[in-house]
Prior knowledge:
The protein is α+β, with helices and mostly antiparallel strands.
Amino acid sequence: MHSHYDKRIRAIRDLDCCEKRIYLELEVRRVQCSVCGKVKTERLEWLAKNPHFTRRFAMNVGKMCREQTVSRVGGLLRYLVRRRGTQRTGFGTFL
């Protein structure tokens, strides 16, 4: 059994639509485990392993990397790095 601990607003990157970048803003709950006492963030099956991206966005980036040149994919990746600042982007843990 888990009890509600707190919640936070998180912006999640999703696929573009009509050449516009789409971010989903959602409330992510953190819960405290009644067995071990640890506080954990709820898992949503449609998020990638890196919780700042949707699974379909991560799959699309992977597909682009397999099918296109590095320079074509680079524009998207450079934007993501700038958006996240100095934080690690987690591209190795997309899926």
